[in-house]
Design brief:
The protein is α+β, with helices and mostly antiparallel strands and about 230 residues long. The chain has 5 helices and 9 strands. One of its GO terms (biological process) is DNA damage response.
Length: about 230
């Protein structure tokens, strides 16, 4: 091969290399441009009323006559049941637990107790009449006047309020969270002199249901946070 042909071949290879490099470089720049993204959080919150109430009513009795303890607990249970039925709660929503009796003489701490036996029984109401439960709880003095010895609520016997309508709220709340996230991403794009593109990926957060506050457990706050990643372009 002549020197002239060798030079021409070398120039051709060089030009081809430069052209290929330009194509690869432009492709990388385009790829990097498509990979510019922003990740935002979209929030949706709702306050809703509880749909179900679980109300355990625990009654107690103490004495030295075991049979008398059982009779006392039975009489108190009948009065509480009558009270609930009179408020319009159906029999099917009321359940009664097995009485629990403690013999204090069989316990080391009860040797000096003047009353040998103490007993308790719990009547539980499971209902969708939440507002009626709230009103009834505020009028428990009526039961006390009838000789019902009501135990104070503790962790194992406290009134619970539940919200069971989450499935109906989900679609609208997810839409709201997505819309909220897009507004945040749009502001970010404007501040960075970019154009907001399509969604690259989205992750729906876990729905949480909590009491609005400690004084109104029958009002719930439903919350969801979605994580959304958008493309950014110039």
């Amino acid at each position: 091969m002549s020197t002239k042909n060798t030079v021409i071949l070398g120039i051709s290879i060089l030009l081809a290399f430069i052209g290929a490099s330009a194509i690869v470089t432009n492709g990388m720049l385009a790829f990097k441009s498509m990979e510019r993204t922003v990740v935002v959080k979209g929030l949706a919150e709702r306050e809703v009323d509880a749909t179900t109430a679980i109300w355990p009513i625990r009654m107690t009795s103490a004495g030295n006559d075991l049979e008398g303890i059982y009779q006392s607990l039975e009489g108190q249970s009948q009065k509480v049941r009558a009270y609930l039925l009179n408020l319009g709660f159906p029999e099917s929503e009321i359940t009664l637990s097995t009485p629990q009796i403690v013999d204090k003489l069989a316990q080391s701490y009860g040797e000096n107790s003047p009353l040998r036996y103490s007993g308790s029984v719990t009547l539980t109401l499971y209902t969708s009449k939440v507002q009626t439960v709230i009103s009834a709880r505020q009028q428990l003095l009526q039961l006390a006047k009838q000789g019902v010895n009501l135990a104070s609520e503790d962790y194992n016997a406290r009134t619970e309020f539940l919200f069971t309508g989450l499935n109906e709220l989900k679609p609208e709340m997810i839409e709201q969270a997505t819309r909220n996230g897009r507004e945040v991403a749009q502001r970010f794009a404007q501040d960075s002199d970019s154009v907001l593109g399509k969604i690259r990926r989205a992750q729906q957060g876990v729905f949480s249901i909590r009491d609005r506050d400690s004084t109104t457990p029958h009002i719930k706050k439903v919350r969801v946070v979605s994580t959304i990643e958008y493309y950014l372009t110039d």
